[in-house]
User: Fold this.
Amino acid sequence: MSDYIPPTENWVREQVELYESSGGTKGATLMDTGMPCIIVTHVGKKTGAVRKIPLMTVMVDNCYVLVGSKGGAPKSPSWVHNLRANPDVEIRDQTEVFKTRVREVTDDKERVRLWDASVKAFPPYNDYQEKTSRIIPLFITEPRDRD
Assistant:
């Protein structure tokens, strides 16, 4: 197993540490938003190291939608490049942890449907898109059966 490299931003690192150290019973809402979040464990494109990132929980048809917004920054978050290179990930949704595969959404019709669902879950995504000239990337996990 590759080494784990913690996130460099303090709030991100603290969110991941709280979420994981509690087994998913604490830290399952993103920062001060009160919105539910998941932890996505993935492999770094350049380092090959294990990386972890908290992302807003967006569910569509029993699949997770991962939104590469980075608050509307000019460049995509590094995890976007990691997922493009290494689409096999692990998702922690509170106390449930499972492996899955993601794919980037490129079909326009699917993208509109998933973007609308993402904005419904977290309305600031529209503001983030307006702040940047890049198209905010979307990824979707493979469908999974949930109890």
User: Anything to note?
Assistant: The domain at 10-141 is CATH 2.30.110.10 (Pnp Oxidase; Chain A). The mean pLDDT is 94.
